[in-house]
Design the sequence.
């Protein structure tokens, strides 16, 4: 292979592909040809480091070629062409909404929105996935995933202080009976390892892990999804980076080693039995904590002009990105190394964790060194940013890379992807009831996608920094399942007199996506927004993150569902007035099972939403507060059991997914928010998985009260059945407990909207539901709670 | 020098029960289990130095014990040793290396951190004749690979 | 009125330092963060302060065991710390801080710097973050818990919080002297005699596993909004220390 490489410019396409496979670059044939032609024109053979740099910079992980590339979409006879799918859907909504409070979108490590009332702060938010490493080494994969997204926040602008971590996982069912291939880890092992990793890293960093979710489906048995997010605060005047020629390139934090070679290209490749172990790493949270402490002190003293994290692609990406306008001169012999047996090109592309690159003016270096030394944080000066727009990397006298920046960043060729949509069969027949409603409710409450997450949540230090005012576990017994976390970031702003905060929530619905990817996007944005309403957040200032996970984009069906979901994101963002500020995608989430059959994951879109909370003291929880208070249902209950958990437990033979009226939802949410702010609402909880009955049960046992409701008064579509009212999952619905004394005011604020009184809170610990006098179910809340409060782990 | 640390009887019930439960859910019945932490300190120092590290740094004086020459009294147990591969970052090893310097004023060449699990088959002793003649050991190896170690980043030895 | 100077002592991996500092500042102390490296280098001196706090976190990763490496680093300054405590200046160790005070032998106090107690892995075998009810020992000399109601709620967040003393007689002595200032109503971690926090006989050096700095305002409690008017028990710990010095 070395021989083949030595005559790179004379290779044909087939030989190039062979070489690519041997060297593990994961470049496409077109990209290899592009590179070969460049060096042909340059009149020389490439250095190994140059191809490695191109492989990293052009990788799916760094460039997002699929989502940002051209697509030809066909649905029936309709054909639509996109030149850049991402820009024409998700980014387009942000541009058209053009919100003044969006301070930085889609260009830095994370999106930034305005925070607080005085214009002094920005809130940075980002979510990532770390799926492939978690499938192979769950503990290390989760740790380094958390560490990576925290560095994104540390490296946004001139550095934000992380104040919240989020985590959303998808695993195979723990009780799955499916046979696994030889080297695959079981769902429980992955689950346990991932939770341990998130816990050990997040807790050591002193960042509360306080929002997220866990979703079980056998579609994730071979390909777990691990979404990790981080939010941080940054002074508004520290958002712009500036690299000046002459600035020193300073690497701080961890050392560079052979671990983490080819992580970026690994994440774009199918997992197979020969998965390279060097791509799997163990995290070192304490090293990253040192980096955090150094950056916060150095940022406030203005000791560097720019910084970024070393993520995928290591030095090559970080320095290449920071120096893209100036050029950079790098001397790799200056790097601090973990081990000695490492090749120069490996130093250049290694993805060893816990490293950040700073651009430091030489005059400020002594002050920075003082801080680094006082925090016992290792560092090295790798070279300097130049003005010649070239990337020159050497190891002593050996050249590793010598390329113009614009080829590195602009050279990647784009290839049109085919996309088709073939809708599944939808049945609208009346849903069949398969069990007594009371029994069905108990089955749903103990379903893995509904039951309590306390055994995971209590392992996370979700209250460090003292700002988690609306907690993931809430209510009279500290165990009710909250809709959104509300964070009061006083540990970052330094002010406990200011009560401004923010809420974070998620929407996720792959079950709907199997039926209609477009509606899935709408449902997911709606779910995230209504969760924010439930705590009293200012939803008119909602900002969104999109995180897509999908199987191979080479399959036109996969691309087709992606196109539909992206169009849904556009419509939802416009409808809710909620711009996307950052996003990420992960492809090739598919693996071969024990019988050699390919298993793609279902299209998985995680929507993360953030919105300000003007006064955290007025935010509300989901537990019932007082007997005698009226209960209201906001939003119309519609026909259709499609995508419901009930259907998974007892197939009703109806898989219809109702459309979503965004305008109606926005009107209802706005009125509810006014009522919450007026102090009329004591508890609010959204209707999602398991439907209205599950929502009422959770509110009841979290507050230690019963509830009695008659669903005949619920705002509903004509002809909706009792089953659909109890267990249907039609979107845009929220149950609220209204203060008895303020019921008149509540009715005034919600007048003319689909908001109706369905019952009241009662002292007797029973949940009773009826329909026009006919009893549907009557269950003891302690029994319901014991079904729900399972130890998942 | 290999220093082995373990929890004293009387305090070790929880960790042992937890391990037995975990292995049992993975399909291996275990009669008894013991856990140890291992610190491999790469330095050519007099034994007294290591003794000082054992009592002054590595073992909790209330709940733990340690030894420089292996853990006594576990005949008939399988010994499973798990170490991180050289290529993986050994976080604990690194911080112990610094702490050793704080205690002795001397830095070892390196420190590696590992774990040992002692497992006894239910109701019988380990047969003589090695792994080939011992189906329990083969099952043990398989279950360990599914629960206690990941051979992508760790090495496992069973004796 | 005097503004007592409070040193919030941190090391690598300390992570509750800012909230602890904020808490002391709110009740009138002049509080500042100091890295133990600054003390070791002689740049700062403990005797220049009136109050000392060891905040929570994972000092040096809690590698080996919680607080062990920090305690080793403190050994070189043991004389200074002993003088500080002996002089009756208030010292509070919260969570990791309590683990450090136990491992350095400052709690339970014995004058020899011998470690008499340990905070070991929770009985549940895992890290546990939740709110707990605590009984306040009204007979305790502890100055930090003065004036608190009989029962309070605070959050805990630890993996190693099981309080153990090997010497039964020493434990009985501690109980007899009412040095157990805080006990759990429902023991979450297996601590002997439900102990959540202990003090020295003077009442000025206090270590506890729960986090008072996370219950400084009523709206930080999980059972809102009914508790808007309820007291935030955590604040009293800090106020008591500042008032004691004044």
Sequence:
């Amino acid at each position: 292979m070395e021989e083949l490489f030595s005559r790179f410019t004379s290779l044909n396409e087939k030989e190039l592909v062979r070489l690519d496979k041997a060297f593990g670059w994961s470049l496409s044939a077109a990209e290899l040809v592009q590179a070969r032609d460049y060096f042909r024109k340059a009149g020389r053979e490439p250095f190994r480091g140059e191809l490695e740099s191109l492989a990293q910079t052009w990788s799916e992980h760094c460039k997002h070629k699929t989502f940002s590339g051209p697509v030809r979409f066909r649905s029936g006879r309709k054909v639509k062409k996109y030149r850049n799918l991402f820009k024409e859907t998700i980014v387009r909504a942000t541009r058209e909404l053009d919100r003044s409070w969006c301070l930085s979108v889609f260009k830095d490590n994370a999106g930034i929105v305005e925070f607080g009332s005085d214009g002094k702060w920005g809130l940075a938010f980002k979510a990532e996935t770390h799926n492939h490493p978690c499938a192979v080494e769950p503990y290390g994969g989760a740790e380094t995933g958390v560490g990576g997204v925290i560095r994104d926040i540390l490296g946004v602008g001139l550095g934000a202080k992380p104040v919240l971590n989020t985590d959303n996982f998808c695993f195979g069912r723990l009780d799955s009976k499916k046979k696994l291939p030889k080297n695959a880890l079981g769902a429980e092992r992955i689950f346990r390892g991932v939770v341990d990793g998130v816990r050990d890293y997040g807790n050591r960093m002193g960042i509360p892990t306080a929002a997220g979710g866990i979703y079980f489906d056998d579609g994730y048995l071979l390909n777990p999804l691990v979404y990790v997010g981080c939010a941080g605060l940054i002074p508004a005047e520290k958002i712009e980076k500036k690299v000046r020629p002459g600035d020193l390139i300073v690497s701080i934090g961890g050392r560079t080693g052979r671990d983490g070679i080819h992580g970026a290209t690994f994440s774009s490749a199918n997992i197979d039995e020969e998965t390279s172990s060097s791509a799997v790493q163990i995290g070192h949270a304490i090293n990253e904590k040192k980096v955090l402490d150094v950056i916060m002190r150095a940022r406030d003293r203005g000791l560097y002009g720019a910084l970024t994290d070393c993520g995928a692609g290591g030095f090559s990406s970080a320095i290449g990105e920071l120096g893209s306008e100036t050029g950079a001169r790098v001397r790799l012999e200056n790097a601090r190394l973990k081990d000695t047996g490492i090749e120069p090109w490996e130093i250049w592309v290694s993805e060893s964790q816990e490293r950040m690159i700073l651009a430091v003016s030489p005059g400020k270096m002594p002050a920075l060194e003082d801080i680094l030394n006082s925090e016992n944080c290792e560092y090295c000066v790798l070279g300097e940013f130049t003005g010649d727009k070239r990337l020159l990397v050497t190891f002593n006298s050996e050249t590793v890379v010598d390329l113009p920046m614009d080829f590195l960043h602009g050279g990647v060729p784009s290839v049109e992807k085919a996309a088709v949509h073939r809708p599944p069969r939808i049945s609208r027949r009346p849903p069949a009831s398969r069990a007594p409603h009371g029994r069905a409710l108990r089955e749903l409450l103990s379903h893995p996608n509904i039951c309590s997450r306390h055994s995971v949540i209590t392992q996370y230090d979700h209250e460090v920094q003292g700002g988690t005012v609306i907690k993931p576990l809430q209510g009279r017994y500290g165990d009710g399942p909250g809709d959104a976390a509300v964070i009061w970031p006083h540990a970052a702003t330094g002010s406990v007199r200011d009560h401004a905060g923010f809420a974070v929530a998620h929407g996720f619905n792959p079950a709907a996506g199997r039926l209609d990817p477009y509606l899935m996007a709408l449902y997911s944005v709606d779910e995230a927004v209504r969760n924010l309403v439930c705590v009293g957040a200012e939803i008119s200032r909602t900002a969104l993150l999109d995180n897509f996970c999908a199987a191979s984009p080479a399959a036109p069906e996969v691309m087709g569902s992606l196109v539909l979901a992206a169009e849904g994101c556009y419509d939802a963002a416009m409808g809710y007035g909620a711009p996307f500020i950052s996003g990420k995608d992960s492809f090739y989430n598919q693996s071969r099972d024990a019988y050699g059959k390919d298993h793609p994951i279902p299209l998985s879109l995680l929507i993360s939403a953030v919105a300000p909370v003007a006064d955290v003291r007025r935010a509300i929880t989901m537990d019932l507060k007082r007997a005698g208070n009226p209960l209201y249902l906001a939003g119309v209950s519609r026909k259709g059991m499609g995508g419901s958990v009930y259907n998974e437990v007892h197939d009703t033979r109806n898989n219809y997914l109702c459309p979503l009226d965004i305008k109606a939802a926005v009107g209802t949410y706005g009125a509810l928010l006014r009522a919450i702010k007026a102090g009329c609402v004591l508890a609010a909880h959204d209707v999602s998985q398991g439907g209205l009955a599950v929502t009422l049960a959770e509110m009841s046992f979290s507050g230690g009260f019963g509830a009695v409701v008659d669903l005949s008064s619920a705002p509903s579509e004509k002809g909706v059945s009792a089953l659909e009212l109890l267990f249907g999952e039609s979107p845009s619905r929220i149950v609220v407990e209204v203060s008895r004394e303020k019921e008149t005011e509540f009715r005034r604020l919600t007048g003319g909207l689909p908001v109706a009184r369905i019952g009241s809170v009662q002292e007797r610990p029973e949940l009773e539901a009826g329909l026009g006098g006919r009893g549907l179910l009557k269950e003891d809340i302690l029994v319901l709670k014991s079904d729900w409060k399972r130890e998942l782990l | 020098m290999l220093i082995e640390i373990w929890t004293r009887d009387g305090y070790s019930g929880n960790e042992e029960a937890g391990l037995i439960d975990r292995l049992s859910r993975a399909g291996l019945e275990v009669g008894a289990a013991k856990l140890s932490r291992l610190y491999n300190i790469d330095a050519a120092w007099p034994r007294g130095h290591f003794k000082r590290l054992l009592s002054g740094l590595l073992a909790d004086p209330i709940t733990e014990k340690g030894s420089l020459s292996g853990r006594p009294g576990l005949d008939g147990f399988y010994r499973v040793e798990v170490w991180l591969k050289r290529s993986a970052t050994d976080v604990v090893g690194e911080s112990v290396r610094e702490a050793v310097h704080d205690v002795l004023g001397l830095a070892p060449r390196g420190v590696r951190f590992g774990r040992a699990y002692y497992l006894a088959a239910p109701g019988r002793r380990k047969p003589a004749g090695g792994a080939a003649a011992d189906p329990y050991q083969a099952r043990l190896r398989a279950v360990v690979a599914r629960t206690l170690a990941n051979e992508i980043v760790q090495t496992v030895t069973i004796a | 009125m005097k503004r007592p100077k409070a040193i919030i002592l941190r090391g690598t991996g300390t992570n509750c330092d800012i909230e602890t500092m904020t808490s002391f500042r709110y009740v009138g102390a002049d509080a500042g963060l100091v890295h133990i490296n600054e003390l070791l280098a002689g740049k700062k001196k403990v005797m220049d302060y009136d109050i000392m706090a060891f905040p929570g976190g994972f000092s040096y990763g809690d590698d080996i065991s919680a607080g062990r490496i920090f305690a080793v680093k403190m050994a070189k300054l043991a004389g200074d710390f002993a003088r500080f405590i002996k002089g009756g200046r208030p010292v509070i160790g919260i969570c990791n801080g309590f683990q450090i005070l136990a491992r350095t032998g400052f709690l339970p106090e014995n004058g020899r710097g011998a470690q008499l107690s340990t905070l070991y892995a929770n009985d549940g075998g895992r890290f546990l973050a939740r709110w707990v009810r605590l009984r306040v020992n009204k007979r305790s000399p502890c100055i930090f818990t003065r004036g608190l109601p009989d029962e309070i709620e605070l959050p805990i967040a630890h993996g190693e919080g099981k309080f153990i003393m090997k010497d039964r007689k020493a434990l009985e002595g501690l109980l007899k002297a009412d040095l157990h200032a805080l006990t759990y109503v429902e023991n979450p971690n297996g601590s002997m005699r439900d102990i959540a926090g202990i003090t020295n006989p003077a009442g000025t050096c206090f270590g506890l596993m729960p986090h008072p700095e996370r219950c400084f305002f009523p709206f930080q409690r999980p059972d809102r909004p009914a508790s808007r008017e309820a007291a935030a028990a955590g604040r009293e710990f800090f106020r008591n220390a500042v008032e004691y010095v004044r």
Remarks:
- Confidence is low (pLDDT under 50) at residues 270-276 of chain A.
- The radius of gyration of chain A is 27 Å.
- The longest helix of chain A spans residues 556-576.
- Chain A has 28 helices and 33 strands.
